[in-house]
Design brief:
Strand order of the largest sheet: 2-1-3-4
Order of helices and strands: EHEHHEEHHHHHH
Bound molecules: glutathione
Number of helices: 9
Structural class: alpha+beta
Number of strands: 4
Radius of gyration: 17 Å
Oligomer: single chain
Largest sheet: 4 strands, mixed
Helix content: 55-70%
Shape: globular
Length: 217
Amino acid sequence: MTPTITAFERSPDRGQGLARDMRVRWALEEVGQTYAVRLVSFAAMKEPAHRALHPFGQIPTYEEGDLVLFESGAIVFHLAQHHAGLLPDDANARARAITWMFAAVNTVEPPILDLQTVKLLEGDKSWYPQRRPLVEDRIRVRLAELSARLGDADWLDGAFSAGDLMMVAVLLRLKPSGLLNEYPRLSAYVARGEARPAYQRAFAAQWAVFTGKSPTG
Ligand SMILES: N[C@@H](CCC(=O)N[C@@H](CS)C(=O)NCC(=O)O)C(=O)O
């Protein structure tokens, strides 16, 4: 059965791959599952028909027969559980990979989102010049810790897993800030993720929605 996901009709990031449908597309590509995409406008996301799929009126959603899911992490986890390739077979290694998925969305992503919120909602406020460096420093703490754990390894725990997919997707949101460049191991880690053929296919698909073209033009 071909699942259907939702994505922005007009992505605020202008196709840079930062919207969260990208994680789901990437996971689908990693496991070799074809999928359909239903594009939604900002207005349509808040309508009852979409809220029946996503209580918070957001993207992405995932429909597969009778199953409807929201939350990019839960969707990636579902795909990883039902297809080979994104979670190790060994029970302990699998539990650790799942731990990294949670760490990505629960520990690393929140301060990164704070930075975006501060820029968007407080950029014109008198306190912004003082507040922004504080938020950036909270991100730096997490990046330093993550970089220390990664060390010289390619991936967080053995082979590439859904934990890496989620972590790279979260870190990518930092690219416009330049903060990632302060941590060469993490920059290289993100670059390894972006170099994966499945990532490239997913990126091209969402880029084409915005531009109507392939990434190379
Ligand atoms: N925690 C959710 C966050 C979903 C989310 O914030 N989606 C954004 C796009 S990346 C959205 O739909 N924003 C529009 C809105 O909230 O109105 C997930 O990981 O799926």
